[in-house]
Design brief:
binds nicotinamide-adenine-dinucleotide; 12 strands; single chain; 15 helices; five-stranded mixed β-sheet; 422 residues; alpha/beta; 17% strand
Length: 422
């Protein structure tokens, strides 16, 4: 994954005037941490989980990035995600570098109390390497605001202080920002409005399929539904549902949330009765206007890219499209709004949370939404303009734009041209 992520960036080298020093600097992560987290289980036994934190580049500021709980988490995945965070933060012009963390765990096999012990244990293991001015974690897949609250509390216990700015995505009552929970989905929605405008398409009646009905998938679905899009398919890890006349995301969420309260609340979509079912593979290949992968990486690959029928793909998940698939989609003329642009609303509001925590002054929801909307719309237009001018894909254009910002920071400390000229 990491090598494939770097290849995406290297394509942008052909369209940016950056020094060899920058290319050298961006080859490797700055700091890689692997930890073992012992957790006492409810039955008295002990389990040890592998955890990671990778800080990729901090030239533009303290590093920032989420923490993922998933059974497929490994060092390669976390490094790729930290690499993407570096460019995502630069693209949104946030004063942060990129990082990511993760624990290799299937949370469905743990009780809530075991998840709390695991989360606190992870902070015990990495506390010396994070902090408000060093590296600031946030939520990602299978982590939520309650988990961030436990982590923030554990950090404060270790450091014998109150440092809310050390972790973002906390509950609002513990210093979280209004609008953070829905921020990634909301940011993606603002991006879609711009993309639809740029391509001369209509929002009302636009047909949409969304893979992944978690935090990101649900929130983007809700906002799109409210503005008149027709969401014909939704899915989760177990499969999807389809309705030609359109699905109401709020009604569906209420039904599955009410049905059960598992570790993260809710049943699978496939448990809904009287609903046409489809697989995740079938969902990706539906004839829709907009396809939104909002689950895992590597979903659109060299094997299925040719079968994709959407006009626009908006990557709300990180890395859902492989390098091979990307060139197939480009040849088909499909606009792919890349992850580092599409899902940057989350880290942008995390940045707002950090600013509010540091200044101990809290903003209204309107203020948060107004500011995130402005950043998302501006950066979409910047990337779109580069892609039109240079006749390159939105992904390469996004890397050109972000790379220029990262490069400027690296180069302002001196380049080999500068040092050898005198
Ligand atoms: P989440 O845990 O809330 O939801 C994940 C959803 O994906 C669930 O519906 C789950 O059932 C589904 N899923 C898991 N494995 C799947 C599979 N193999 N096939 C289909 N569906 C599957 O996670 P989230 O926070 O919504 O994150 C989703 C994606 O968005 C991830 O790639 C994450 O890195 C990215 N992202 C999240 C944020 C954020 O703020 N939460 C920010 C930026 C990017």
């Amino acid at each position: 994954m990491f090598e494939s992520a770097k290849r995406q960036m290297e394509l942008a080298y052909n369209y940016s005037k950056i020094s060899e020093d920058v290319k050298e600097k961006l080859k490797y992560p700055k700091r890689v941490l692997q930890v073992a987290i012992p957790v006492r289980r409810d039955n008295g036994s002990l389990s040890v989980f592998k955890g990671y934190r990778v800080q990729y580049d901090d030239t533009r500021g303290p590093t920032k990035g989420g923490i993922r709980y998933h059974q497929s988490v490994d060092l390669d995945e976390v490094t790729a995600l930290a690499f993407w965070m570096t460019f995502k933060c630069a693209l949104a012009n946030l004063p942060f570098g990129g990082a990511k963390g993760g624990i290799c765990v299937n949370t469905k096999e743990l009780s809530l109390l075991e998840i709390e012990r695991l989360s606190r244990g992870y902070i015990d293991a990495i506390a010396d390497f994070i902090g408000p001015d060093i590296d600031i974690p946030a939520p990602d897949m299978y982590t939520n605001s309650m988990i961030m609250g436990w982590m923030s509390d554990q950090y404060d216990i270790i450091k014998r202080t109150k440092a809310p700015a050390a972790i973002t995505g906390k509950p609002v009552s513990l210093g979280g920002s209004l609008g953070r929970t829905e921020a990634t989905g909301r940011g993606g929605y603002y991006i879609i409005r711009e993309a639809v405008k740029a391509l001369g398409m209509k929002m009302k009646g636009g047909v949409v399929a969304i893979q992944g009905f978690g935090n990101v998938g649900y929130n983007i679905a809700r906002l799109m539904y409210e503005s008149g899009f027709k969401i014909v398919a939704l899915s989760d890890v177990e499969g999807g549902i389809y309705k030609e006349e359109g699905l109401n995301p709020d009604e569906i969420k209420m039904t599955i949330d009410k049905a059960d309260a598992g570790a993260y609340g809710g049943k699978s979509l496939v448990s809904l009765k009287n609903m046409k079912k489809l697989t995740n593979t079938e969902l990706l290949e539906l004839p829709v206007d907009i396809l939104i992968p909002a689950a895992l990486e590597n979903q659109i690959t060299g094997k299925n890219a040719d079968k994709i029928q959407a006009k626009i793909i908006v990557e709300m998940a990180n890395g859902p499209t492989t390098f091979e698939a990307d060139s197939i989609l480009n040849k088909k003329g499909i606009m792919v709004v890349p992850d580092i642009l599409a899902n940057s609303g989350g880290v942008t509001v995390s940045y707002f949370e950090w600013v509010q925590n540091k200044s101990a002054y809290y903003w209204s929801l309107d203020e948060v939404n107004r500011r995130v909307k402005a950043i998302m719309a501006d950066e979409f237009r910047n990337v779109y303009q580069i892609s039109q001018e240079k006749k390159i894909s939105m992904r390469t254009a996004a890397y050109v734009h972000a790379l220029n910002r990262v490069a400027q920071a690296i180069e302002s400390k001196g380049t080999r041209e500068y040092f050898t000229s005198r």
